[in-house]
């Protein structure tokens, strides 16, 4: 079985491709948590369990960590993780493995989406990353089918510092719903409400309101059809990321 968490769609796409190549059943962690069926008989019986997720500030998203704390598998279950990251993963997967032991782990480089701090990758780089991701996923699928015990995660420079120092500081001082807003041009379509994986957005007087559980996945910003959702003054004129655009020619 493959479980995934995704905000802007990169990790979902990787999980879907991996599911196709391995023949493993696919399920959304968000869906399981909403149904409160995180622990099921099916999950306890699987011979292999894969976790696919994006790196958020060089660690796993809080929702994934919370979910995995509820999962207790038999010792014989083959466990692996596949993280997506714009550049590097730091020690994020290694840190996660201390809470949820892993037999194998891989990283897949995908287009950057965290526009409050970084620019979007240009089109040429996005196409390149997607093309290389196809090959990478195929290699990972073979490793999973052969039950390989490998650790192929691109941690990058200053990995320990990023995960164990920068990440906690980032979570404390930056991760907050404050700063999100909708500019003029909002049509109250509700796309942001539907896209939020933690049910953190609601419409009030026909405008989106962000509540306390924000994880800064940026799904709301990139999904808005009118590009009017902003984070402070850092996302204006930075464009928006749409994975489907790059899949059409990959």
TrEMBL record:
SUPFAM superfamilies: 4Fe-4S ferredoxins (SSF54862), Flavoproteins (SSF52218). The keyword Glycosyltransferase does not apply. Keywords: 4Fe-4S, Iron, Iron-sulfur, Metal-binding. Pfam families: Fer4_9 (PF13187). GO terms for molecular function: 4 iron, 4 sulfur cluster binding; metal ion binding. Residues 175-206, 207-234 form the 4Fe-4S ferredoxin-type domain. Transmembrane segments: none annotated. This is 4Fe-4S dicluster domain-containing protein.
